[in-house]
Amino acid sequence: MQQTILVIGSGVAGLTYALKAAEFASVLLVTKKEDRESNTNYAQGGIAAVIAADDAPEFHIEDTEVAGAGLCRRDAVEQMVREGPSRVFELIEWGAEFSLSGSEPGPALSLGREGGHSRHRIVHAKDLTGREVERTLVAAVQRHPNITVKEHHAAVDLVVESLPTEDGTLRSTVLGATVLDTRAGAVEFIAADATVLATGGAGHAYLHTTNPSIATGDGVAMAYRAGASIANMEFIQFHPTTLYMPEARSFLISEAVRGEGGILKLQDGTPFMDAYHPMASLAPRDIVARAIDSELKRSGDDFVYLDVTHLEADFVRERFPNIYHRCLEAGLDITCSPIPIVPAAHYSCGGVCTDLEARTGLHRLYAVGEVACTGVHGANRLASNSLLEALVFADHAAHDTQALLAAEGPAPKPKAPERFLAANDPARRAAEVTPEFAHQLRLLMQTLMWSHVGIVRSDHRLKQALREVRILHTAVENLYEHSHVTLETIELRNLAQVARLIIECALRRKESRGLHFNTDYPERDDSRPASDTVLPLVSQVGLG
Question: Hey, what CATH topology would domain 423-508 get?
Answer without folding.
Answer: Methane Monooxygenase Hydroxylase; Chain G, domain 1 (1.20.58)
